[in-house]
User: What shape does this take?
Amino acid sequence: MQDTIIKKVLIANRGEIVCRILRSLRNMGISGVVVYHPIDADSPAVQMADETVEIDGDTPVAAYLSVENIISACQKTGADAVHPGFGFLAENAEFAKRLAEEEILFIGPSPESIELMGDKIKARSFCLSNGFPLAPAISGDEGEESFLDQARQIGVPLLIKAAAGGGGKGMHIVREIEDLEQAIGIARGEALRFFGNDAVYAERYVEQPRHIEVQVLGDNYGKVIHLGERECSIQRRFQKIIEETPAPGLSNELRENICATAVEIAEKTGYQNAGTVEFLLAPNDEFYFLEMNTRIQVEHPVTEMVTGIDIVEMQIRIAQGEAINFSQTDVCSKGHAIELRLYAEDSENDFLPATGTLLVYDMPGGEGVRVDNGFREGMTITSAFDPMLAKLIVYAQDRPKAIERAIKALDHTIVLGVSTNIDYLKRLLSHSAYQAGLVNTGFIPQYANDLASPSLSDKQINLLLAAAALSNRDFSDPAFKLPEIHASIGNWRN
Amino acid sequence: MRRQIDLHNNHFEVTVLEKSGFERFGKKLLQIEKNAPQFVDLAVNETGEGTIQFGKQSTSIKMAVKGETVFIHAFNRIFSLNIIDPIEHAASKVGGRSGLSRAPMPGTVVDINVVEGDQVKKGEPMMTIESMKMLTVIKAPRDGEVAQVHLESGQTFEKNRVLVTLAEEEEL
Assistant: This one.
């Protein structure tokens, strides 16, 4: 074993996760280097860093995606390790290899693990050949008869998809087995029209699935443990916005079964460092492997809140060759934690990203409230990056109290100048189905009407209009009087 | 003086009444649509926190202003209101019909198909933009001559930014 002791870590990322990683580095007495594109020069991450290196690229995103930028920043500052955060280069096996060539430690799994588990198709066939649970699917399109036979074996509900497809086109759900042939015919026709290839495939359609994932940690000596599961079903645009742990309504048996499966998958791949195994959970309690994320997750804080384990610290310790010095039974989760992702987006308009300047940026605080934030008042939110602003993580002894605390925290979260999902998150948390723990990945479309912005009373409208009118100098200041002809339009004396 | 204020896609006509005789007491009268005017008072500190009073109603608020947009936190919710000068509004409406192509969402210019002076037919692609990893083609809203292309390839823009302007239509 190599006895690397990390002294200086370069963080190849931006925003809140950089601040989060810097906190762990500080606690461990390790120096933190932050790379930044000029667009992020005023960010808290840059201010918090021990050292900074400006990087550039054709676009701001390209600056952070450039392997050479990161390597030369490491050489310039003498950083002996890189933490990739999530996104950007976090699941890029070539990047991990390049760092190894330069004798810089990558805080994450081996390039081989990234290559195997980071690729959905490879990961899926790995799980299939090792007997891990996958949604039953037809392997190939080898003629109509064999296809029909296989489809009948899987049974309904069945999802027929164009093999070359994407974006929901050419997809059909078959709920009655006698509709199968016709649906395949239609799907082939559409597949040919949209994708120029009539090959289709079929898999078990899971109705109202939940997205459950398991945090795992593996060290360099073959030990793998899990830190429990996370419920991540509340999603919009295929992206999570609320995550929590423990997952509501799971029996202990099912929870243990899912977590044990995740550990087995990680063990089988020889996984080292922190990772997450994602599953689809069907209403009948069957669960299927979806994918593995070979990095720290956005939603890791909920696990930290209930276990008291600093996952970033564990990543660094594992990377420098330390063994995990506790066992599965030492991991005990207490209470309930919920994470709310604060996005600059327009909840009224299909959650499209919003831009603008953070004129007011008040984040909540207090007992049981953690804010992982990457911005400050006055900063401009552009369309250059993912529009996540911050994460609010609340902790309480049980789920109802955690929900209550989350709503209160959002009441104290005020962002003016950019549209955000603050009000939308409050409506989600207040919804009776959410409070009852009845979540699935279709929650947001299913309850779209309930979650729409409630209408305002006339009194409320009048107060808002009055405040707007008087806040506008052109409008309220007598020095800016318009000519008589316009002023006289409001002739109320009659 | 009159303005149109937009809230949640609804338009309200709001008038601060002049020469009402109350100015010397530091009071303003505000009329919303055709309703009876009410005394109005806004008291906020430098952080934008304070109270708005309209007639007998009042509420605590926090607010910030940028350009013509007013952001207000009130009733435990967040609102943005746009103040529109009726004269400018009328002008931009005509402009809209005659050929201002605005960005439907924030994004980046990927490709530009036209230069100033080009004659375009209605529906002809003028620009391709990328937002949210989706490509959107900006098409000519009518036949006409390209008066101005406001951005270069690779430039980013905010929602509602004017991308291409067609020349004014000639009088018939």
Q: What stands out?
A: Chain B has a mean pLDDT of 84. The longest strand of chain B covers residues 57-66.
